[in-house]
Description:
The protein is an alpha/beta fold. The chain has 5 helices and 10 strands. It has helices spanning about 55-65, 90-105, 140-150, 160-165, 170-185, and strands at about 30-35, 35-40, 40-45, 80-85, 115, 125-130, 135, 155-160, 165, 190-195. α2 links the parallel β4 (about 80-85) and β5. α1 (about 55-65) packs across α2.
Amino acid sequence: MRASIDDCDITRLNTIDMVAFAGKPVPEREWLIEGWIPWRSTTIVYGDGGTGKSLLAQQLMTCVAAEKPFLSLHVRPCKTYGFFCEDDVGELHRRQDAINQKLNIDFGDLENFKCASRVGEDNILMKFAANGDGELTPLFEQLINEILSCGAQLVVIDTAADTFGGNEIARPQVRQFLSRLTRLAQQIDGVVIVL
């Protein structure tokens, strides 16, 4: 006897009938930085350790929060949240002071910039069972609550090595983690950047 679709535990797909697009305007792509960082997505910034990824991310967050150009590029202003696993509060403060001086702003101009210093903490956001299934940690849920409570639309996670609890060469595990971060970007109608 053949099983009917009603007998299966299947989540319905969001099937798109391309004919439905006929006569409708094509939506424009949205950007945090046009041509560089697309909106409602996850972007990964790669580089060797100690090459300045965290500094670059903090500069970007500052420019977005204070409505200043980033590397002479226009940015979409919004609230920001940084999850810094490698820099303590003192380093974030020193770095921010230097950034502020360069941009001719002060700490009072950064009401749209929030962050957490997580040096020395367990920072795994997603762990994996022996069968490869990913599970969000309570810390991920806490992070989501913080992001939603402050209304951030740009989230920086520094670093993947500190927050990804899986096997970096197991593509399905990496894909689950990145998919969940992209879901977060869509949930906040913003951008997640992972260093």
